[in-house]
Write a structure and sequence with these properties.
The chain is an alpha+beta fold. The protein is 33% helix and 20% strand. Strands 1-2-3-4-5 form a five-stranded mixed beta sheet, sandwiched between helices. The longest helix has 17 residues. It is globular and about 55 Å long.
Amino acid sequence: MNLSDVEVRPLQLTDLHAVLGLGHRAFDVQAMPYTSWSLSSVAAHWDAQPGACWIARDEEGLLGFVLGSLSYDEREDWGYLEWIALEDRARGRGVASALVERCCDALFAAGASRIITDVESGNAASAAMMRRNGFAEKVTVTLFVRTNPQEQPGTTTHSLQDPARSRLRRAARATESRHRPSNGPA
């Protein structure tokens, strides 16, 4: 595959099924228990920052995607490249870098002063790709987990929640209020 044979374009409604499927195959929520992958994960990013959500495809179909948003935690001037995934046939061909560049360009154009991302500690290929694309390791945090000794493995009864959803909803509401026409002086 040659990168010139790859179409990189904004995420569209017709891409959702393929994006969800790739995400379910690519993301191990057990490795990152503070997050989850779902339709609401995609929709929250797409609603809050559609210009930062991109896909890559070739004649066979979806090759990969990236989902970003403006606003990370309480920093509304920081962009967050939260989700990126590739099909195996796209690895090592520059597809991920093309997606990262499009997402970052959109976030900087929307006002981000910085863009952050996180990579699972064992994912050397993704860490190297992020470094090649101008990201540098700045903060290291080790997630410590203590399991309830009374809980049997695989019997968790609570559903995983996506904490990014509330952050993205806040950003979307702030964006809506900035773009909503005023009714004159109050």
